[in-house]
Amino acid sequence: MEKLDLVLNILIALFALNIIMNISRVIYENYRDNKKLYRRINKDISRGNFSDGLQACELGLKKKPYDSQLLWLEADALFRLKQYKQAKIKFEYIAENEPVWKEDADKYIESINSKI
């Protein structure tokens, strides 16, 4: 009976380890994919390809509608495309829901208000 208990405990531990490894792999792949997307969008925006950056943001936001980094990049692309009303809505949402970025979002909102 003790040997059977030992074998069962080992099997349970291996099963738990397998689950943990799979969860870790999914988290890492998600993180890696997000980093690639952010880099691509930042590259588009820095090269002046605002429409391409905006399009990539919109695709990303379909999968992750509350991703704060994507929301910021989308607002920035809209601002650079001079779509001020839409950009203002995005920056207001960010200012209200992302305390870390509130100050920067407020600066964009002030700038937009002076342009509208």
Question: How would you briefly describe this protein structure?
Answer:
With 116 residues, the protein is mainly α.
Q: Decide which structural class fits the backbone.
A: mainly alpha
Q: Calculate the mean pLDDT score and round it.
A: 87
Rg for CA atoms? 22 Å
Terminal-residue CA separation: 79 Å
Order of SSEs: HHHHH
Note the quaternary state here. Answer: single chain
Major sheet: size, sense and barrel closure?
none
Kindly estimate the percentage of residues that lie in beta strands according to DSSP: under 5%
CATH hierarchy: architecture: Alpha Horseshoe
Write up what this structure looks like.
The protein has helices spanning 2-46, 50-63, 68-80, 84-97, 102-115. With 116 residues, the chain is mainly alpha-helical. The protein has one domain (2-115): Tetratricopeptide repeat domain (Serine Threonine Protein Phosphatase 5, Tetratricopeptide repeat).
Topology of this protein?
Elements: H1 2-46, H2 50-63, H3 68-80, H4 84-97, H5 102-115
Keywords, please?
116 residues, mainly alpha, 5 helices
